[in-house]
Write the structure tokens for this entry.
Amino acid sequence: MDFMQTVVEFLLIYLPPMVANGSPVVISKIIKTHPIDMGKSWKDGRRILGEGKSIEGAIGGILAGWITASIIGYAYGALQTLSITGLVSSFGAMCGDIIKSFFKRRLGFERGKMLPIADQLDFYLGATLAIYLCRNCVRPGIEVFILGLLLIPFLHIFTNKIAYKLKLKNVPW
């Protein structure tokens, strides 16, 4: 597979979960959100997830990723396949982010504190796992997956700095 084909496949598969991952911060600025953990604490006395993980953000992220995938699928002539892949990968992305937040709280990280690598790859690994658990999804080849491992951390940092400058986020990571 040549490099440009790898990049195109990467975008077809992973742009929807990238959109899903970035959408909750925008959604939280538009509407009132409700925390997934309902304000409850875990056995360790810390919040289960915290204020940053909301019901509306998770649902909105999944929908934004699915809509993105549907637009790409329509334009690319593979609406059904890419739409399903986008929905599943967006769900996986949200799950990966939520699971990472749970473990960050257990480790004593407060909301907004950085956990390098995990903060950049949580949604990517969640999306990839969900895709591989789905029989009807487009699965990335190893070249595409490795490209994502290399690109996603930089893209994540770059987009978070933009969100910070736009005052969508309180921290630039």
In short: The chain has one domain: 3-165. The chain has a mean pLDDT of 95.
